[in-house]
Amino acid sequence: MSKIKRVGIMGGTFDPIHYGHLVTAEAARTEFQLDKVIFTPTGNPPHKRYPVTPAEQRYLMTVLAINDNPYFEVSRMEIDRPGLTYTVDTLESFYKELGNDVRLFFISGADAVLDILTWKDVDRVLSYCTFIAATRPGYPMDKLNQKISQLKELYGREVYPMKVTGLDISSTDIRRRVKEGLSIKYLLPPSVEVFIQKNNLYR
Ligand code: ATP
Ligand code: MG
Question: Tell me, what CATH number does 100's domain have?
Fold first, then answer.
């Protein structure tokens, strides 16, 4: 019998990807003994209001960013799917692609877990994967713990909180900094910084 593979799925807009994402994925990999983490840039995100950078460019930045980590991969699953993307469909597609000998872990920020009840087919989402909820510095843990108890009561599923070492970086802040001509050095990988400059993103 083959060993069950533990695979982390790190979804995000990654507009742009930054060290907050990377350090979170690496923390999840080591704390939860994941065999690999698959970064999955979103296609056409339904809930983002600002003009999102074309998927192909967000995909390329993600590829550049994960290049030096042998345990990280990038999937085109969501960006190649036309129309709106739902996590439930993504998870189903990953099972089809990876086979049934895998256990999927969905890595996300605690903020995402807080509004998980608004997601499409939340019961199926929770049955397909184990949630790892990363908290940023200063995060109000009682709110998250409340939600975790609620999800356990409603669906009988565990969500695992994970404290991530002090990185208060966001893509929103990076976009603003580029727009205002401020430095983004040390907030994201140099290769991604160069890509942003060369392609005139966020100006
Ligand atoms: P934006 O500012 O545009 O919302 P973001 O920095 O939050 O972007 P996303 O692509 O929206 O990045 O996030 C992808 C996933 O990574 C989400 O689950 C989000 O909660 C999580 N995340 C984002 N930034 C961090 C960070 N600094 N530390 C831990 N997790 C993060
Ligand atoms: Mg966000």
Answer: 3.40.50.620
Q: Tell me, yes or no, if the pTM score tops 0.85.
A: yes
Cβ contacts of residue 90 below 8 Å, gap of 6+? 9, 11, 40, 77, 78
Residue with the two structure tokens 């990038």: 74
* Residue 18 counted as domain residue: yes
Question: 89-119 pLDDT, tens per residue?
Answer: 999 999 999 998 999 999 999 988 988 889 8
Probe ligand 1: pick from 105, 170, 187, max atoms within 8 Å of CB?
Answer: 170
CB 65 within 8 A of CB 22: yes
**Does ligand 1 lie within 6 Å of residue 58's CB atom?**
no
Residues spanned by the domain of 144: 5-167
**Both tokens assigned to 64:** 């550049």
Overall number of domains in the chain = 1
Q: Is residue 174 part of a domain?
A: no
Q: Whose CA is nearest to atom 18 of ligand 1?
A: 108
Q: Which ligand is nearest to the CA of 45?
A: 1
